[in-house]
């Protein structure tokens, strides 16, 4: 969650609102079904393996951030999605691990579903927020196994809290139809994240 973006089953403080709680349960169900693909970082024992996992994660994080960052729908509710973006921290970690700018630019990218509405934008953004919550635990695992490994991505808390995102979701998703669209987009994004980052554990 690689994942560095592992979503934990216990919702974080501020995630108990009706809309965001519904999305959390749906995304957590995907994690529960396919969690084996998200545990590579828990077993990493060498910097080469760690670098490979971060490179794979970057291939999801960067296009996901680009997708939500360029979605024109946020202006309607006055939200700046830049607060969810942490790919820069991933690039820094990868550079510390020896990748050049050209190497990073050439990494494979995950294909995401197009964002065509505000509910979809909220749904795609949701797993990125979840990865922030899971990052603290990931950092503990990595630091214990590889004290010299850079963990800037997992240490980056972003600029949007769960309470802020919950308020955003309540404002952006006023009815069942929009809430369902957002939840479907969140689940689809999580499935893509799990599939994309399903690195064989022996790579670690």
Explain how this protein is built.
The chain has 204 residues and is mainly alpha-helical. It has one domain: Up-down Bundle (Heme Oxygenase, Chain A). It is 59% helix and 0% strand. The protein has helices at 18-34, 47-70, 87-96, 101-105, 118-145, 152-155, 162-172, 176-196. α5 runs parallel beside α8 (176-196). The model is unreliable at 1-9 and 199-204 (pLDDT under 50).
Number of helices: 8
What is the CATH domain class?
Answer: Mainly Alpha
State the total count of DSSP E strands.
0
Report Rg.
16 Å
Helix content: 55-70%
CATH homologous superfamily label: Heme oxygenase-like
- List low-confidence stretches: 1-9, 199-204
Average pLDDT, all residues: 83
The CATH architecture can be named as: Up-down Bundle
**Which percent band covers the strand fraction?**
under 5%
> Looking at the structure, what is the overall shape?
globular
- Label the structural class: mainly alpha
Number of domains: 1
Q: How do the SSEs run, as a string of H and E?
A: HHHHHHHH
Largest sheet descriptor: none
The end-to-end distance, rounded to whole angstroms, is 14 Å
CATH topology: Heme Oxygenase, Chain A
Brief write-up:
The chain is mainly α.
């Amino acid at each position: 969650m690689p994942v560095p973006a592992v979503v934990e089953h216990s919702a974080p403080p501020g995630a108990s609102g009706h809309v965001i709680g519904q999305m959390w349960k749906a995304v957590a169900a995907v994690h529960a079904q396919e969690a084996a693909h998200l545990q590579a970082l828990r077993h990493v024992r060498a910097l080469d393996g760690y670098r490979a996992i971060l490179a794979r994660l970057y291939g999801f994080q960067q296009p996901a951030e680009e997708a939500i960052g360029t979605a024109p729908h946020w202006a309607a509710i006055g939200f700046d999605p830049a607060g969810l973006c942490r790919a820069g921290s991933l690039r820094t970690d990868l550079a510390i691990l020896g990748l050049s700018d050209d190497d990073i630019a050439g990494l494979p990218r995950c294909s995401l579903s197009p964002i065509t509405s505000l509910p979809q934008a909220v749904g795609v953004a949701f797993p990125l927020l979840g990865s922030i919550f899971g990052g603290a635990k990931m950092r503990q695992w990595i630091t214990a196994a590889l004290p010299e490994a850079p963990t800037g991505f997992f240490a980056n808390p972003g600029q949007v809290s769960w309470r802020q995102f919950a308020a955003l979701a309540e404002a952006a998703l006023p009815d069942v139809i929009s809430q369902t669209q957002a939840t479907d987009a969140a689940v689809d994004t999580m499935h893509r994240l799990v599939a994309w980052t399903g690195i064989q554990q022996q790579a670690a």
